[in-house]
Amino acid sequence: MLAFNIPFTTAACEHNDSLWGGLFVALCIFCALYVILSILFCRRLVKGLAIFFCFANTAAFYFMNAYGVVIDKIMLLNVLQTDVYEVADLLSLKMLGYLICLAVIPSYLILKTNIVFAPFRQELKIKLITSIIAALITSFIIGCAIYHNPKVLRQHKPLKNALIPVNYIGAIISVTKIKMQYIGIELKQISQDAKMLPQKENSKPNLIVVIIGESARDASFSLSGYNRPTNKPLEKYADEFIYFDNFYSCGTATAISMPCIFSPDDRRHFKPESEKYTENVLDIIDKAGYKLLWRENNTDCKDNCNRIEQERFCTVKECPDEILLTNFANKITSTDMPTLVVLHQRGSHGPLYALRYPKEFEIYKPICQTEFLQKCSEQELINVYDNTIYYTSHMLAETIKKLKSLQDKYNIAMLFTSDHGESLGKDGIYLHSAPYNTAPDEQKHIPTLLWFSPDYIRDNNIDIDCIRQMKSDYFSHDNIFHTLLGMSRVSSSYYKSELDMLAKCRR
Ligand SMILES: [Zn+2]
Questions:
Q1: How many angstroms does the Cα of residue 177 sit away from the middle of ligand 1?
Q2: Is residue 273 in a domain?
Q3: What strands, in cross-sheet order, belong to the sheet with 411-418?
Q4: What is the pLDDT of residues 416-461, one digit of tens each?
Q5: Which of helix, strand or coil describes residue 413?
Q6: Which of 25, 26, 338, 426, by CA, is between 20 and 30 Å from 504?
Q7: From ligand 1's centre to the CA of 381, what distance in Å?
Q8: Residues 120 and 257 placed together within one structural domain of the fold
Q9: Is the dihedral of CA 495, 498, 500, 506 positive or negative?
Q10: What's the 210 CA to ligand 1 centre distance in angstroms?
Q11: What is the reported pLDDT for 88?
Q12: Is residue 176 domain-shared with residue 213, that is, in the same domain?
């Protein structure tokens, strides 16, 4: 436990800005752990438990070390929802090395060690005395700290995510609680009163296209002032779309953000996993009479498309996102109903960013080729990530091109938003999934873009200059549910016009 918690001790020292403060926190925690473990590690259980902790600790230690990620319930939910390909990205020779050195060899030594126990009463006496001493040390340190600063415990709370095994055991308990809560619960309907609002006479049916990005961050978009032309493929449509440069995600992980985007609840009220038993905005729009379609190129739709048609075209391990546009026009025009399509991108999913774009989109070089992001230089990592953004811009431009070819038949609106952002090694943090309140801005500040066909703007009386003026206003995923309802002209008792990004600009 001591060895596995070297990162915890380092974090405690940094958190306290002093070596002594950090060491006191560490000592306090180790004494507390000692008390718990001396109860658990009794004669019959000691070897089994010691071996179990070697393996479990190593897995947690590896992820924390290799990616600088925090282990908490959201991280665990994310891991449970990840597909095997992503797991294969993460598991590697390096992990095997960790396992052999920190789990297999120690476990072998534990098995071979003959542990001599004192007679029961004496053993109990030793444990009791040492535990009391340890408990006294813990209470003394906590007591002194609270005396100095009554808020000390709350201030140190984030540290618990670095403490092995408390972090993963806590995460497992929280996730089990969440999962148990929803067993046997019936689907909660929110679509009963959904209705199509009257359309302008003789107007074409609506086609709403929603593109959900993956791990794209605003900081790497030239549309937001980034000094590299990562959005060059979109330049030719610059006069036609609006890029929102002050837009924030609901979570820092797909498992939270994706369902939250489609949920009527805002970030503060959204309950993870509630999507499993609650309808969402897609159900409402479906009920109102739209044809709904979900096209998937990521892991899956995370229970957001359970009741609508789904398509997946990628049959190999990895496909570039343009595959989402396969046979697009034919599919859409197969009916003349109003239609809403969701395209779920693979986007900039780490750690193997280099797999996310075709070779000809390797604009910035040299790139980071490995999943051990720390091995790459900062520039290599930025280069490979920027290539994924460049390719996403290309994919968005191709989508607009396709939609323009359909604008004689449909009134079209397109919304692109990322699920969350990404960290690229700043302060030793990689990937995403940091706890929301302490997550770096790059993990929450995301790109969002709107495009409309000229007839959509005309028939819906939209003042496009009014929307342009809001491009730097603060918006977040909380707005998407209501904006989609407004965009589709569907009424629902769950709709709040004050959260509809377009409401103010509809004349
Ligand atoms: Zn994601």
A1: 23
A2: yes
A3: 309-312, 291-296, 339-344, 206-213, 411-418, 445-452, 241-248, 475-476
A4: 999 999 999 988 889 998 899 989 999 999 999 999 999 999 999 9
A5: strand
A6: 338
A7: 18
A8: no
A9: positive
A10: 16
A11: 60
A12: no
In 3D space, the residue among 340, 339, 342 whose CA is nearest the CA of residue 294 turns out to be 342
Q: Which of 115, 148, 181 is the last residue of a domain?
A: 181
Share of the chain above pLDDT 70, in %: 97
**243 and 342 assigned to the same domain:** yes
Q: Say which range, 12-21, 41-50, 256-265, 454-463, has the weakest mean pLDDT.
A: 12-21
How close is the Cα of 45 to the center of ligand 1, in Å? Answer: 40
Distance 483 CA to ligand 1 centre (A): 21
Whole-number pLDDT of residue 63: 82
How many angstroms is it from 336 CA to the middle of ligand 1?
33
Which of 22-31, 123-132, 191-200, 488-497 shows the lowest per-residue confidence on average (mean pLDDT)?
22-31
Predicted TM-score (pTM) of the model is: 0.78
Together in a domain, 353 and 452: yes
Task: Report how far ligand 1's centroid is from the alpha carbon of 346 (Å).
Answer: 9
Give me ligand 1 centre to Cα 261, in Å.
12
- Amino acid identity of 196? M
The angle that helices 46-67 and 166-181 make with each other, rounded to 10 degrees, is 90
Is the domain of 128 the same as that of 225? Answer: no
C-alpha of residue 439 to centroid of ligand 1, in Å: 15
In a domain, 188, yes or no: no
Distances, alpha carbon 157 to alpha carbons 20, 154, 167, 428, 442, in Å: 18, 5, 11, 20, 23
CB atoms within 5 A of ion ligand 1 belong to 214, 254, 419
- Is 225 part of any domain? yes
Average pLDDT, the chain: 90
Between the alpha carbon of residue 344 and those of residues 81, 84, 249, 360, 402, the distances in Å are: 15, 18, 16, 22, 17
Question: Residue 2 has what pLDDT?
Answer: 81
Parent domain of 453 = 205-505
Label the pairing between strands 241-248 and 445-452: antiparallel
Token digits for 108? 């072998």
Asked whether residue 191 is assigned to any structural domain, the reply reads no
Q: What is the distance in A from the centroid of ligand 1 to the CA of 277?
A: 21
Q: Are residues 17 and 61 in the same domain?
A: yes
Amino acid at 189: Q
Same domain, 470 and 373: yes
Question: Ligand 1 center to residue 61 CA distance, Å?
Answer: 22
Return phi, psi of residue 244, to 5°.
-95, 115
- Distance (angstroms) between ligand 1 centre and the Cα of 192 equals 31
Q: For the domain that residue 336 is a member of, what is the CATH number? A: 3.40.720.10
Same domain, 233 and 364: yes
Contact 424, 430 (CB under 8 A): yes
Task: Answer with the residue of higher pLDDT: 373 or 422.
Answer: 422
Distance (angstroms) between ligand 1 centre and the Cα of 307 equals 22
Last residue of a domain, one of 166, 181, 196: 181
State how many domains the chain has. 2
101 DSSP assignment: I
